[in-house]
Design brief:
The chain is mainly beta and 171 residues long. The protein has two helices and nine strands.
Length: 171
């Protein structure tokens, strides 16, 4: 009985992986592996950008050509290494345009300054609110009069997860 080596029928059939085609091994520096993976995942995700604009008033004639292809990642993600996505649940920010199910693009590298919309963890629960610094300390302001301001006390576990940079929602 032989040991090791190739065995007929062993392994994953070619073209059945997540890319739908045969793959090859590539060596990259460990520190860059996540960037290469991100590039591979987004490589085929560009969508057409028409050369015409669309009016919010009266109709206008449309150009019959695609001006360019756009990868939305290039527009909504400023810093891929520090950006994450999270879905909105609830209506405490409805007056700021956030709706249930919206997708927030959040950047951890941006400074959380006065008035910014942030995602924060308060006692282990995530929330999205406007950041204010009041006389008594940090305040998290909703954009719905049915909700109260959250006054973050020194006894509470509090961490700013990042600043909201983009909101994506269904219409």
């Amino acid at each position: 009985m032989t040991r090791g080596g190739r065995r007929a029928g062993a392994g994953r059939p070619k073209g059945t992986g997540k890319f739908g085609e045969e793959t090859i091994p590539v060596r990259v520096p460990k520190s860059m592996a996540h960037k290469v993976d991100g590039w591979v995942r987004s490589a085929g995700s560009s969508i057409p950008l028409f050369g015409a604009t669309v009016r919010a008033g009266g109709p206008t004639s449309a150009d019959d050509f695609v001006e360019d292809r756009v990868n939305l990642h290039d527009y909504v993600v400023r810093s891929p290494d520090t950006t994450f996505l999270v879905r909105v649940a609830g209506d405490s920010m409805i007056d700021a345009g956030l709706q249930e199910g919206d997708l927030l693009v959040v950047d951890r590298s941006l400074p959380a300054t006065e008035g910014k919309m942030i995602v924060a963890a308060v006692d282990g629960d995530l929330t999205v609110k406007f950041l204010r610094r009041g006389k008594t300390g940090v305040e998290l302001h909703p954009a719905n009069p049915n909700y109260k301001v959250i006054h973050v006390g020194p006894e509470q576990a509090f961490e700013i997860m990042g600043v909201v940079t983009t909101v994506v929602h269904d219409v």
